[in-house]
Predict the 3D structure of the following.
Amino acid sequence: MPIHKASLGTKIGIGVCAVAGGACVANLVSQVAAQPTVGGVVAAVAGVAGSALAGFLAADFASGLFHHGVENYAKPGDPIIGELAADFTSHHYFTNNLEASTMAGNMNPAAELMAPLLVGLAAWNPHFAVTSAALAVVGGALSSRASHRWTHETQPPPVVKTLRRLGLAQSTEDHREHHKAPWATNFCILNGSLNPILDKVHFWRKYEKAIYDVTGAEPKTWKHPAVREFALGQIDEAEYKRRYVEDIPLYKQAIDFAREKEEARAFIHNRYQ
């Protein structure tokens, strides 16, 4: 039974998102219906659909960027984001920690962050294509919390199968790949549709290299020798793939796996008990 309920701030954020989101939809429908011809309405509906698809894919990509950033560049104890970093780290070791919260509780801090954006969008009332794309991005950011949770539930709600079939939620199999040390792939968690593409072209290694070149910061994934060497161009893809599993013991030694796991256990105990 969930024991960590949503805070008042999260509940208010969810309520504001629902009301403002409804207002945005009403604005969008009104603009589409106001088209002077049937052809104009059909074209507008097509524009709404295309914009929504683009926004949804952008939301999946954004979920990967956020996920990768928190796990690799933030640390427990850091100002502002430290608790979130500890939460992400503990989830690697204890994947059922999401079920220690209600679904509404899992919306923290997404609901609070998205609420003012939706209010602003409703007040602005831009072109329907912009509204459609923005709703897909914001809605995707919110629903990614649910999609992620469902990948870890043994018995998710019946509707989840339909959502996965429609490509609106991530499959358990896709997200399971992320939960294999060194936790270096499959970062997108909305529907995960971009994961095969991003991992095939080694986007995350290139992204890490770009950040390193600009800031000098090394991601946590680089504690894995082969990941670091491949990102820096010191080994080729064949060597990288060969050593990916082989170097996992070295990675676990570098992060002090046993200590990190105990710290994760303590964090979960203190947060949910």
Remarks:
- The chain has one domain: 8-272.
- The chain has a mean pLDDT of 94.
- Residues 8-272 form one domain.
